[in-house]
Structure formats: C-alpha cells, structure tokens
Amino acid sequence: MKLTASVLLVTTIISWAASPALSIRIPDRISGNANGVSDQPLRTSVFALGSFWRSEAAFGCLDGVVRTAAGYAGGSRPNPEYRSLGDHAECVQIEYNPKIISFRELLDVFWTSHDSRQVFGQGPDVGNQYRSIIFTNGTEETRLAALSKEREQTRSKTSVVTTQIQQLGEFYLAEPEHQKFELKRNPFLLQLIGNLPEEELEQSTLATKLNGYAAELCPPRMQRQIDAKIDDIIRKGGFVDISVLMSTLPFVILLYDMRLLIENVI
Question: pLDDT of 201-233, one tens digit each?
Fold first, then answer.
C-alpha cells in the first residue's frame, strides 16, 4: 500500500510539473543560469558602499547581472577576515553581461544605493570598512567613474562626495555566512530553491536574483512579477512541504527548483 501511494504521488507531481500552464521544465538544477548568458563573455566590477550584506542585494536583481559575491578589497592586509579586516572595505563583486548592462548603469545603481556624502560609515554602520569606493579596471572605467563622481558632486551642493576611486587590486571573498545574506534570512525562499549547498548557492544566478528580492531591492516591476508568480504557485496548490517529500522521495526536490518556477520573470 505504501509503495502504491508513493508511485501515485510521484506520478501526480510529475504530471503537475509538466503542466504547460506552469511553464515548468526539468533541466539540470545546478548548471546554467536564469539569464541564459553562460556563453557570453562576462565582466567583473567591484564596489564598496557600506555593509556588503545589503550591497550584494542591491545589484542582484539587475538585468544582466549573473552573480554577486560579498568580499573585501582596498586595503593592504593579506587574507582579511570579517573580524580582522585591517584597512580593507566591505565590497560587492558583480559578474555581469556587458551586452545587457553597462558599467555606466552599474555606477548609477552604486550612487542611488548609498549616501556617498557620509563620512566614516553608512547609516548606522560606523567604521572605515564601510567607506565608499569605486574600484576600476583600466583607464576607461576610471574616466567613467570620475565623470559620474563629478555629476554626483554637482547634485550635492552643500556636502562633499567622499567616494574614492581606486584601481582594483586583490579581491578577497568573504566567509560563507556573509554570502547571499538577505536570502538566507528567508527560509521560505531557501526551501523553494531546494536548500542548495553553500557552494551552489554562491554560484547560483537564481540565488543572486532572489537575494535582491528578499531584501525588496529589485526594480519595482520585477519585484511585483516575482510576488505574483509565487502567489500564483501557492494559490494553484503548487507548493508542497519539501521537508516532507525529502523524507520519502528525495529526488522529487528537483521539481521544485525555483529557477523553473520564475524563469520567465528573471
């Protein structure tokens, strides 16, 4: 009887997953990314704009951003750690497709995502590790960064823009507990993507997007679309307690890869 019930459950779930109405496919849940840009040459930019928890989320939802990572840069101490930063700043590293989003557009998000006039910190976070820095790769990025800083200073008539512009040296990846921090604070979203192992989570484009979504930092249109997609899945009965399924049918978790559920949104 238990075997028959299990077979029936698997058949029902597979039929549900194949429903055209839900636009679900079952590819490899680890490889590839939601933007479909894995074959495109990617570029990397690094910015410091306060706490890297929120900084990583601020860039995650942007079209063309493939991956983000929290880390440290701008200082001289080798192998910095969270409790031993030395003169480094908390930073976010962004891998992006330049055919979809440009360095100029990343600069725009940088300026609007923090207060570049604040000295020795950001908001309630006080300290040199929270300073504002644009890290550049080459003379063209340095030129664009300088022009954007001039424009920002023009807008700020009463305060000095404190942002530094530096050539990027070594970027040090932060400890695992600091990666995708906003997403990790949302057990529901983590469960929907299958509670990915840490290494997969850090490399996942989907996790990058949902990290921004969890912090409510996606562009309004995308935030609303993801809200609606998740609500629709739940309303149609598409959400099943994965912890229950895993206890009897571990492989069924593949059907709940969130990348498949919201692939048409992000």
Answer: 999 999 999 999 999 999 888 888 888 888 887
The number of residues in the chain equals 266
Residues 6+ apart with CB under 8 A from 121: 50, 127, 130, 131
Per-position b or e across 214-249, b if 16+ CB within 10 A of its CB = bbebbeeebbebbeebbeebeeeebeeebeebeeee
CB 90, CB 48: distance < 8 Å? yes
**Spatial CA neighbour of 169 closest among 136, 147, 215, 197:** 136
Q: Catalogue all structural domains in the chain, each as residue range(s) with its CATH number.
A: 2-247 (3.30.1060.10)
Residue with structure tokens 């459950």?
Answer: 9
- Tell me the two tokens of residue 189: 């979203």
> pLDDT of 68-108, one tens digit each?
999 999 999 999 999 999 999 999 999 999 999 999 999 99
3-state helix, strand, coil in the chain (%, to 5): 45, 15, 40
**d(Cα 237, Cα 16) in Å, to the nearest integer?**
10
Over residues 243-251, the mean pLDDT reads 38
The SS3 call for residue 122 is strand
For residues 167 and 141, the answer to whether their CB atoms sit within 8 Å is no
